Amino acid sequence: LRAAVMRALKVENGVARGAHIGHLLWEQRKFYDSVRLPILCAELLKRDYPKELMVLGYFVHAAPRMLKVGTSYGPLVHSCSRSILAGNQQSVSWTRGLIWDLLDELSKVDPEYPCAAHVDDLSHVLVGESASDLKQKVLKAGRIVGAEVKKLKFTLSDKSTLLPDNPNTRSIAKTLCAEGICLKTAATCDDVGVQMSGSGVRKASSLNYRIEVKGKDRAKRTKALVMIQPAATKLTMTGIHPVQVYGHQAQGASQSQMVAMAKNIKNTTRFAGSYACTTTVIAWQFGPNANPLVKCPLEQIDMWLQTWFGITATDRHDARVN
Question: What pTM was estimated for this model as a whole?
Fold first, then answer.
């Protein structure tokens, strides 16, 4: 999350000083099911990955699996040579080794703005002093991705996005699409769950969805458990609250959003649906600092303090000036 905030700060600093911004968000289609084990092996050996761990892992990843159809399992099994298991402890390390060359080449496009990776999803902010400068950098980055994806035998998802949506970025996306590199433009797009907009206006839709759909649904399920076993109330602060507040440190949360968060927390208790004071219920059940109206502003301040001390001297200078 902090990494996403730091990328957002680079975008804001660039726009504030009059530069042109391009934010590339690359996604692979069915990544885990597309990894070819022989290619993975060759890439890992180039990185000096421990052979014993790799061989042991291959016994698990290449083992026959039952096919799941809907909610039931079919009788067929097949041996996998083009898939790694999501959730396995080695899968993330293997992914890093697999896309190492790709990240290395992308980070050379503009050393001041290296590409970041979240497993297989890539987030790359590029800044140009002019529209043509930005176009040159983004086209170079896009062609690197296209060539490396082809070498690794992946397929780019149609969700791959270039922010923001303007005539220059649309021209770039059109050029890359003509070369077979899937890319679209959009006004906003999520980066590790945090809505990015290339310094444009951010919509509240991402956070609202977490509160109104994910948070409310979990609150109902938690309340059902609480009615059976009151000790289940402790699931609120480890289950509902983290889901509904994720990302607010990057783009803030309005008063109405924080009130809705507090309502979800209250609705996990046996006081759900009653006229009992929400603030009092939360303070009594979870402590006064558990109230989103108290907790969220403090978390936002904490995040920006972490960001301030974690950014480079150049970014800190630009943030002061702008």
Answer: 0.78
